[in-house]
Design brief:
7 helices; alpha+beta
């Protein structure tokens, strides 16, 4: 069953949703609705150039990475030791979210979901401290490269990163991108280590992918997911 949302702030019991996790359609992308969504295990995901209303998903099979269980391969440990890239947090949220939108021509593909409305909504969350980014920078002598989403006057260029929602000591990953090999992996390792130091609960990956599986992701039930999330509510 798929529910039609109205202007009221509510979400149905996800147990009644579709097998792929789709539970509801409609509503808006306001701050209050997004915060209610994530605190209930929901996230919006829809093709902005094909569908007029947000589609709300809440899979009953969740895929997460617990910060203490992040897997760092031998090759990634070597890359970290080389210190070839600088990794920062919340220095260029706009650069990251736009990089996630446009890298590899994503915004021109059928079914593309990271469009103007999503960018506006999550930028608003970021300004309120409820969304965060991790940036991966490469030092370059040419800061005017047209392939780079966010060149800076200091000779750094943004070559990868990720962003997501921060709520109840958890991080709800939304998207990541890489313009050079392994940049998104570097961002994810940095995020997991920072969360582990701060007592973070988990990184919500939304769905299993080969990358997340290789980095230590695991399946948990929706009931387990909400139990952990509610325990971190302050």
């Amino acid at each position: 069953m798929v529910w039609q949302l109205n202007n009221d702030l509510w979400f149905p019991d996800p147990q009644w949703g579709e097998a792929d996790g789709l539970v509801a359609i409609g509503g808006d992308l306001s701050v209050d609705r997004l915060l209610l969504a994530y605190s209930s295990g929901y996230f919006p995901w829809y093709a902005f150039n094909m569908e007029r209303e947000p589609h709300w998903y809440c899979p009953l099979d969740r895929y997460v990475i617990f910060p203490s269980q992040i897997h760092v391969s031998h090759s990634m440990r070597q890359l970290l030791r080389q210190q070839r890239y600088e990794v920062t947090a919340n220095q260029d949220f706009q650069g990251v979210i736009r990089g996630c939108s446009t890298a590899q021509g994503r915004n021109e593909q059928g079914g593309a979901w990271l469009g103007p409305d999503i960018i506006t909504a999550y930028t608003r969350l970021h300004r309120l401290g409820r969304a965060a980014s991790v940036e991966v920078w490469e030092t370059t002598g040419d800061a005017s490269s047209p392939s780079v989403p966010s060149p800076t006057a200091t000779g750094r260029r943004l070559v990868g990163g990720l962003y997501g929602v921060v709520l109840r000591h958890a991080f709800f990953g939304e998207s990541m991108f890489s313009l050079v090999p392994n940049a998104s992996k570097l961002a994810l390792i940095h995020l997991a280590r920072a969360m582990q130091s701060a007592g973070g609960l988990f990184i919500d990956c939304q769905f299993e992918t080969p990358l997340f599986r290789s980095m230590g992701g695991c399946h948990i039930t929706y009931a387990e997911y909400m139990q952990i999330l509610d325990a971190g509510h302050v």
